Amino acid sequence: MTIGMLEVLLLDARGLQDTDFLGGMDPYVLIQYKNQERKSSVARGEGGSPVWNEKFTFRVEYPGGEGQYKLVLKIMDKDTFSADDFLGQASIYLEDLLALGVENGKSELHPCKYRVVRTDQTYCGEIRVGINFTPKVKEEKDEIQVGGWKESDY
């Protein structure tokens, strides 16, 4: 099993449909990978074309764990006096990227656009994301220390 770091570059979104009747949308993104979640900053007043330009990191094990190697980007609208609105989500499947990273020592998906869809599977805009995966380099000699001793006569 290889452990590494997945770096997600959240750039921007376009064509998001405004759900607010008064004022503009204040979108943010919840980024989920397996049981890890990160939250972007809120793009105040940027409406349907927000720009974040933020990096997030996730700890990744490949191969290992149950479930799919999927990155989910949920786009939400921050509301002050009510629950935040779900605008849509995009899913990025990472199994091939992780396999290439383990094989080559690093892998990258250059920033590109992914479709944002609602729960009824209708298209509602696009989000631009770039992804890098870097496996942690293992040392040649892994020493196991028990109680602070490297070697023992017993």
From TrEMBL:
Keywords per UniProt: Calcium, Metal-binding
UniProt xrefs under PROSITE patterns: C2 (PS50004)
Gene3D superfamilies linked to this entry: C2 domain
Pfam families per UniProt: C2
Span of domain C2: 1-107
Keyword Coiled coil: no
Protein name in UniProt: C2 domain-containing protein
Organism: Vitis vinifera
